[in-house]
Design a protein that fits this description.
The structure holds three protein chains of three kinds.
Chain A lengths: L2 H4 L2 H21 L3 H26 L5 H31 L13
Chain B lengths: L4 H16 L3 H31 L7 E9 L4 E7 L1 H20 L7 H20 L3 H22 L4 H28 L12 H6 L4 H18 L8 H8 L2 H26 L1 H28 L3 H22 L2 H32 L10 H4 L1 H14 L6 H13 L5 H29 L16 H19 L2 H19 L1
Antiparallel strand pairs in B: 1-2
Helix pairs in contact in B: 1-2, 1-4, 2-3, 2-4, 3-4, 3-10, 3-13, 3-18, 4-5, 4-10, 5-6, 5-10, 6-8, 6-9, 8-10, 8-11, 9-10, 9-12, 10-11, 10-12, 10-13, 11-12, 11-17, 12-13, 12-16, 12-17, 13-15, 13-16, 13-18, 13-19, 15-17, 15-18, 16-18
Chain C lengths: L6 H17 L5 H28 L9 E10 L5 E8 L1 H24 L6 H19 L4 H19 L6 H32 L4 H4 L5 H4 L5 E2 L2 E2 H16 L8 H4 L5 H10 L4 H8 L1 H7 L1 H22 L5 H21 L9 H31 L15 H15 L5 H16 L1 H26 L15 H16 L5 H4 L13 H22 L5 H8 L1 H8 L4 H48 L6 H22 L1
Antiparallel strand pairs in C: 1-2, 3-4
Helix pairs in contact in C: 1-2, 1-4, 2-3, 2-4, 3-4, 3-11, 3-16, 3-20, 4-5, 5-6, 6-9, 9-12, 9-14, 11-16, 13-14, 14-15, 14-19, 15-16, 15-18, 15-19, 16-17, 16-18, 16-20, 17-19, 17-20, 18-19, 18-22, 19-22
The chains are: A mainly alpha, B mainly alpha, C mainly alpha.
Chain lengths: 107, 497, 635
């Protein structure tokens, strides 16, 4: 319970920002679909950190932030499942998982 | 029902008729009959107008009727004519009539061609009878849009480029114009009443000078683009060069007049104070148009380009005279619109007919045509003489009225501008006689020309109509001059005070 | 006296023109000729009846101007109205007689001369049209009507010079004539604008009324050191100088000889080219009372032209060109006479002399041209070097031509003597220098006319392809009639009929002037006889010894070259070509630039819609960050 005093909110926000931008950079810079997906996961998790942290510091007696984090995780899992299946299909079609090569809507 | 609606119904019925019949000959005849009916009705309108005036009706506008067609913005279908509109309607129906016969030999998509042509003409008729700014603008757009198709599909040479250029420049003009018209609309009820597009209502209120100064350039330039105001005239040479015969005729003959008419009826009439303050800028521009267009024509080698530049010069004179803002010069401007409309239509008709025979429009590739196609050549000479302002033909009457009118200003600026504009009559003579000398006179340049056939009946009908109109105005100008002058007095009074 | 029938003088030729012009090509050619000629005969009779009726009815002391008919043609303002009407005063009635007479002679002559030409009907249609416009010009009641017909005359001149339209030189000459006179007419028009604005009328009657408001209350406004009226009158004179081919606007006239010879006789010798003289005479009271300075200008221009043209005439070889330059020189005389004239009574001698010379000149110059036409008809050549000894083959032409030469040389009692003598008297009283020049020109005139005469009818006999023969009677009868008129028209009591103020003028004989002028004319004839009576080498020797001057005169003092430079280099190359270029590349270029930059701009932003998600995320993220920053720092 002393944790509150030891880790200020600023730290958590900075952490989540760093994680978010690492994820964003992953999405922007990398061309590999799997890596991009990982970047998206990182961004989602950065948001989760924020949700939990703000919930904890601002409204300690309520749980919406936590729930939101859980929902995000669930959706992230579902999204990862769909995304990976898409990626596998793309790989089968194009024999590549690089986004540059799959910029056409029809094939 | 309003009498003037017939001017819109006849084209509409003609279009329906053309759409219903199938083979080419019938399409032509339906178009011809429709436009003949229009011509006859225009003369009836002229007669009725004179009768009404003679019976003592001194209203500014006759045969007025109004019907609201868009309640929330107070947009009306308000119709009415004065002497100026009547003469412009007469011009339009003569040119359209001649245009139909000049395009007798259009083989490709004939039905669509005539439909577009008559939509264009209908737009022009609608424009001249509207008294509501929005309706006017609507008809204006209706006249401009078919132009794109007509040039793009039935044109020659770099037709897509020309069609695009013409349409875009005119649309640019309309966009500017629309800003000006909306400016008028939103200032049309200074006391807080209902906003209106009604021209006669707006004329009654006085708009503050600062507002006038802001919106005047929008309206004048917006209409000026269509009136070939320097330096926004360059759509004209390319557009005319690529357009098919009848379209050039209608466009140069009638559509360009919408510019001058609009400048007068909307810009000068509704915003008189701004007109007085800003006229000098536009007088300079139009003087440049007049002289520069003429010099531009001297150097051209393509018949259509020569005529297009000559149109720039002559239409410049129209705007020039309007900006002089006195009765005589304005009468001259309207006369010049009619005169130029007729003779330029005649020129384009002849160029089309010559082109269909020699398959060339380059003057240096032809020569001695007088010997082989005397009828067309003589008519060409007459058109040329009208263009260089020979007495007895319409050009002289118009130009002299303009010069005498412009010279009524006593200051040096107006005087010098007038003298410069006068000098265009010499340059006009140079380029007209140059063309006549190279194209029609001299030895026959090409032996193939010996096999050329002179005009066929429909070509004769088309050209003779126009020549007769030019000669009638030239020999007996007083009735037309009085018709226009009578309607101007009130308007000029409003402008000068 | 009722003169309303004079309207027929205008209406008839126009109707004939319309008739022949529209139907002539379907008729047999000589029908058009006969119709034109007989129509003109009626018009001539009408003109003579008018003249007779007018001149015998002198009411009071002076002849009054009569407006025989008047209709409103166009009204510019309440005051500036163009009327079309018929004005009869001594001046216009005299012109009616001259024009119809010469025109009739030319019509008859043309029946023979133009026989068998393609376009015979067209020729007569144009002749009728010319007659119509010229008659309309002289009977104009106001300056604008005059301008209208002035332009129409210019057109008919264009059409007739370019009659042989398949010949490029004829087309070029016609174009040149029209454009040069059109340029002069620009001055005329501006002059009319200035004058009419200041006087608020076009009417001759009001403009030239000696006690009327125009002259009595002159406009005081000045522009660039000259009064506005002087400007107007000088500009109007510019129009007159263009039509009358005064230096430096004379260049079109020699080229105009490309037209058929009878046309040259009618238009470019007797009638149209004197329109400038007529114009100045018509407006003479304004010139005299309101702007005497411009009269001096007219006198000097006329004097210079007469000398200049006479010198050139001595060197030309084409007989029609010699006559053309001679016409210039003689019109110069008329202008001089107007320029030195005063107004009213004895002072108005110059005015009377000028119109007297116009009257006599019309006959003898038409005779010269028709005679030359007869010669050309016989030898099919224009060059005097290809002629000679023709007196044996063409007796009638020879005698009539000789009569005309004596007349123009000013030998009494032929008509040219009287009119020229009075011009010299008027000049002597006004300005001694001008008198000296005109006296000298009289000698030169005699010389070049007899040079022409001897070269054609005497001199050596070249080899003719076929023996020359006398022209048919349709051509010789007009020659004969004109010869009679040339001899006797000097005895017309002109000083009682056509004077500056309508009152008769007493003239006296001045032996001090008449004798020297006859002497110098005889000297000129003698010199010509010495040089050209028989073939000899003296002309060449003289030409060689004066080589530079001779070449200059032969090349017409290079005025044509200057004009070519002005038109081709300046108008075409220096103005039109750059204007066309400017329009294509700068004005239109700007429009294309706007179009093209719109296209390339949209081409540039098109790349943003690449379909590459990562770029979208980039834009999206940058946008969000930007917005965040804006919200943070701007609010």
């Amino acid at each position: 319970m002393n944790l509150q005093a030891e880790i200020p909110l600023d730290y958590l926000v900075v952490l989540s920002t760093i994680v978010f931008f690492i994820g964003l950079m992953g999405v922007l810079i990398r061309r590999n679909l799997i890596t991009m997906l990982m970047g998206i996961e990182l961004m989602l998790n950065a948001v989760n950190i924020n949700f939990v942290a703000f919930n904890h510091y601002l409204f300690p007696h309520r749980l919406e932030g936590h729930f939101f984090a859980l929902i995000v995780m669930a959706i992230a899992a579902a999204e990862a499942a769909i995304a990976i299946s898409l990626i596998i299909n793309i790989y089968r079609q194009f024999a590549t998982v690089s986004v540059d090569d799959v910029d056409e809507l029809k094939h | 029902m309003n009498l003037l609606l017939i001017l819109l119904i006849i084209p509409l019925l003609t279009i329906v008729g053309i759409a219903l019949v199938s083979d080419i000959t019938k399409v032509r005849w339906v178009a011809a009959i429709g436009m003949s009916a229009q011509l006859i009705f225009s003369f009836i309108l002229l007669y009725l107008f004179f009768r009404e005036r003679n019976s003592g009706n001194t209203d500014a506008m006759l045969f007025v009727s109004a019907a609201t067609w868009y309640e929330s913005f107070n947009i009306q279908l308000k119709l009415g004519v004065d002497g100026i509109s009547v003469s412009m309607i007469l011009l339009t129906s003569i040119v359209t009539f001649a245009g139909v016969f000049a395009s007798w030999q259009v083989e490709y998509l004939t039905k669509e061609f005539f439909i577009s042509l008559i939509i264009l003409a209908g737009g022009v008729f609608g424009f001249f009878i509207s008294l509501d700014l929005f309706t006017m603008f609507l008809f204006y757009e209706l006249a401009v849009i078919p132009m794109y198709l007509l040039i793009g599909i039935w044109g020659s040479g770099p037709k897509e480029y020309s069609a695009m250029k013409l349409t875009l420049m005119l649309m640019g003009g309309s966009a500017i114009l629309l800003v000006g018209l909306l400016g008028l609309y939103f200032n049309s009820a200074p006391g807080g009443g209902r906003l209106t597009f009604d021209l006669t209502e707006i004329a009654k209120i006085s708009i503050p000078l600062s507002t006038q100064l802001f919106f005047f350039p929008f309206i004048f330039i917006g209409f000026g683009v269509l009136g070939a105001l320097f330096p926004l005239h360059t759509w004209s040479p390319d557009g005319h060069a690529s357009a098919p015969t009848a379209v050039s005729m209608l466009h140069a003959g009638v559509l360009m007049k919408l510019g001058g008419y609009g400048c007068f009826r909307v810009a000068l009439y509704l915003l008189p104070e701004a007109a007085h303050s800003l006229a000098w800028i536009f007088i300079i521009l139009t003087t440049i148009s007049v002289v520069y267009g003429a010099f531009g024509a001297v150097w051209q080698k393509d018949l259509k380009y020569i005529n297009a530049y000559s149109s720039v010069s002559h239409c410049g004179l129209v705007l020039f005279a309007l900006l002089m803002m006195n009765e005589t010069a304005t009468t001259g401007a309207i006369l010049q619109m009619i005169s130029h409309g007729l003779m330029t239509a005649l020129f384009f008709a002849l160029i089309g007919m010559i082109y269909s025979r020699t398959h060339s429009r380059m003057i240096h590739e032809m020569g001695g045509l007088m010997k082989v196609i005397p009828f067309l050549s003589v008519v060409y000479v007459i058109a040329g003489l009208a263009s260089l302002g020979l007495p007895g033909l319409s050009g002289f009457v118009a130009e002299m009225t303009i010069f005498v009118g412009s010279f009524q200003h006593t200051d040096t600026f107006h005087r010098m501008a007038t003298i410069l504009a006068c000098s265009s009559i010499v340059i006009t003579a140079v380029y007209i006689l140059r063309v006549v000398g190279i194209l029609l006179l001299g030895p026959i340049k090409d032996n193939h020309f010996l096999e050329l056939k002179d005009a066929q009946w429909f070509e004769k009908l088309s050209t003779v109509t126009l020549v007769a109109s030019i000669a009638i105005i030239g020999i007996t100008p007083f009735w037309l001059s009085n018709l226009i002058h009578g309607s101007l007095t009130q308007m000029i009074h409003a402008i000068t005070n | 006296m009722d003169f309303s029938y004079t309207i027929l003088i205008l209406v008839l030729p126009f109707l004939i023109f319309l008739l022949i012009g529209s139907l002539g090509s379907r008729w047999r050619p000589h029908l058009s000729g006969l119709l034109g000629t007989s129509g003109l005969f009626i018009i001539t009779v009408l003109a003579y009846v008018t003249a007779f009726n007018y001149f015998i009815h002198r009411t009071g002391e002076a002849y009054q101007a009569i407006e025989a008919s008047q209709l409103t043609w166009l009204s510019f303002t309440d005051d500036l109205i163009i009327h079309l009407g018929i004005l009869l005063d001594p001046l216009s009635v005299m012109m009616l007689v001259v024009i119809t007479t010469v025109s009739l002679m030319v019509h008859i002559y043309s029946l023979g001369y133009m026989k068998g030409e393609a376009g015979f009907a067209r020729y007569f249609a144009f002749l009728s049209f010319f007659t119509f416009s010229m008659l309309g010009l002289v009977v104009a009641t106001n300056i604008f009507q005059m301008y209208i017909f002035w332009e129409l005359v210019g057109l008919s001149s264009y059409l007739l010079i370019g009659f042989y339209y398949e010949r490029p030189s004829a087309v070029a000459a016609a174009k040149k004539a029209f454009i040069v006179t059109r340029f002069a007419d620009l001055g005329f028009l501006i002059g009319i604008l200035i004058l009419s604005f200041n006087t608020n009328t076009f009417d001759f009657a009001r403009l030239t009324d000696q006690h009327g408001p125009v002259i009595a209350q002159p406009v005081t406004a000045m522009f660039m050191g000259l009064s506005v009226t002087t400007w107007a009158m000088l500009l109007i004179f510019m129009g007159g100088a263009g039509k009358s081919a005064m230096f430096p606007l004379h260049i079109w006239l020699p080229d105009a000889m490309e037209g058929p010879t009878p046309v040259s006789a009618l238009i470019h010798a007797a009638t149209m080219v004197v329109a400038g003289v007529y114009l100045v005479a018509r407006l003479f009271p304004i010139y005299h009372f309101s702007s005497p300075g411009s009269l001096d200008v007219i006198a000097y221009v006329g004097s210079f032209t007469s000398l200049f043209a006479a010198v050139i005439a001595c060197t030309q070889l084409d007989i029609k060109r010699v006559l053309a330059y001679s016409t210039l020189s003689q019109i110069g005389y008329m202008m001089v006479a107007l320029g030195v004239s005063g107004y009213g009574n004895e002072a108005g001698l110059g005015y009377m002399a000028s119109l007297f010379h116009l009257f006599t000149h019309a006959f003898f110059k038409a005779l010269l041209f028709l005679g030359a036409g007869s010669v050309i008809h016989a030898v099919h050549n224009n060059l005097m070097t290809e002629m000679g000894g023709l007196r044996k083959y063409m007796p009638v032409t020879h005698i009539t031509f000789l009569v005309a030469c004596i007349t123009i040389a000013g030998i009494p009692p032929f008509s040219g003597f009287f009119s020229k003598d009075e011009i010299l008297v008027a000049a002597f009283e006004h300005n001694k220098i001008i008198f000296a020049v005109q006296w000298l020109v009289a000698g030169i005139t005699a010389f070049y006319m007899f040079r022409l005469y001897f070269n054609i009818f005497w001199n050596s006999n070249p080899e003719y392809h076929h023996t020359p023969h006398e022209s048919p009677s349709t051509m010789t009868i007009p020659l004969f009639i004109l010869a009679v008129m040339s001899i006797f028209s000097g005895f017309v009591p002109f000083h009682e009929l056509v004077t500056s103020d309508g009152r008769p003028l007493a003239t006296e004989f001045h032996p001090m002037i008449a004798v020297p002028s006859v002497l110098i004319a005889l000297a000129g004839i003698g010199l010509a006889a010495a040089l050209y009576y028989r073939k000899n080498s003296r002309p060449e020797t003289i030409a060689k010894s004066l080589k530079a001057f001779y070449t200059m005169a032969y090349r017409k003092f290079y005025v044509d070259e200057v004009y070519l430079f002005v038109t081709h280099k300046v108008v075409f190359q220096l103005i039109s070509r750059p204007a066309a270029w400017f329009d294509r590349h700068i004005v239109d270029g700007t429009m294309n630039l706007i179009g093209n930059s719109t296209v390339s701009f949209s081409g540039a932003i098109k790349e943003m819609q690449s379909g590459e998600v990562q770029w979208y995320i980039w834009y999206f993220t940058s946008g969000v960050l930007l917005l965040a920053l804006m919200i943070l720092y701007l609010t």
